[in-house]
Amino acid sequence: MNPKKIFIVFSNVSKALAFEWAAEYLNDEKLDIHYILLNNKSTAFENYLIIQKHKVTRIKYGGKFSSLNVLARLFILFLKNKPDVVHCHLFDACVLGLTAAKLASIKKRIYTRHHSTLQHTYYPNGVKYDLWCNKMATHIIAISEVVKRTLIDLEGVDNEKVVLIHHGFDLKKFENISLKRIEHLRERYNIPENAYVVGVISRYLHLKGVTYIIEAFKEVLDVNPNSVLLLANAIGEYSGVIKTKLKSLPENTYFEIIFEEDVFALYKLFNIFIHVPIDQDIEAFGQTYIEALAMGVPSIFTLSGVANEFIVNNYNAIVVKHKNANAIKSAIIELMINDLLCKTLIANGKVSIKQFDMSTCTNKTEELYLS
What we know:
The chain has 2 domains: 4-169 and 357-370, Rossmann fold (3-Layer(aba) Sandwich); 172-352, 3-Layer(aba) Sandwich (Rossmann fold), CATH 3.40.50.2000. It is 43% helix and 18% strand.
C-alpha cells in the first residue's frame, strides 16, 4: 500500500525542538511527508529538516501584505500534488493553509490549536480568525483539555471534530546533561557558584504572571541573600512593566536571558523552577511544566493548561494560587529548607511526565492521518 501523502504547514517557526522531534518520530514508511514553511528567510528549523533529508518547501511570507500571494501558491501546490492530508500549525499557517486546502478540495484538513483563551482575553478581534479556522478544518487537534473546552464550550465546535493529543517530548534528551555544558552557561551568564538559583522560563507577557514572581523573590532575599533570579525568554510586550519591577531588586540579584539554545543545561542551573500563569485557562499547554519535571528541578506552579490534568500539590510540584506573590514566596522558602520534599517532587515528577513521551504523541497523530 502506498504511503499517505501528508503536507504539514508551519508559519514563522525559527527553532522548535518539539517540531524537530515530531519529524524524527513520524513513520516515514506509512507517511510521505512534505513540510511547507511560511517564512521570510531560511531558519534553523528548515536547516534541520534539510539535513535530515525531509521534503521541504519554503514559501516566502512577510506578513499580511503577502497573504494573497501565499494563499495562491498554497492552493496551486495542493491542487498539483493532491495530498491526502493537510495539517497546519500556528496562526498564519492555519488561516492560509486551511483556506487553500479547502479551495483545493483536500478532504482531510487538520490544524493543531496552540492557544486556548488568548484571543478571547487579549485580542478579541482575532477570535473571528479562530472561528474561520474551526470552520475550514475537518479535524482539530487540541493539545490539552483546556484547549478542548475552549473549542467546544466557548467556540461551539462539534465534539466529534476535536481530537485530544498532548504535546510529546523526546525524554531521552533530558538525560545525562554534562557538567561541562552546565558550567559553560554558568560562566556565560556570570551566575555565582554558591548562588541559590530561582529559575523562570517565560516570555514577558502579562498572562505568565512574572511580576508576582519578582514580588515574591524580593522578600525571599531577606531569608536567603545568596539567592538569584534567572529569567529566560526575557522578551515580550509586557517587558516595560516587568523591567520596572526588576529595578526594585538589588543589583546582581537577577539575570535576564533573551534566548538560550541549550535549554537542557539551563534547567540544570536552577535550584528550583517557577511557572505561574494567571488563570487556569490562559495557558494552552505549558511545555515548561513537563520540561522542568523531566530535568528533575523542584517546581512551583499555578494550575493552567496541561498542569490541570496531572500536577498534584506536594506530589510532583508545589501548587500555589493564581496571582499570589505571598504564596510563591512561602513555596520558595519551603523548597529552600525542605530537602525531603524536594527529593519527593523530583522522583514523582519524573514518573508523572512519562505519559508525554514523543512516541505517544506521534502514534496518535499517525492514527488521525491514516483514519
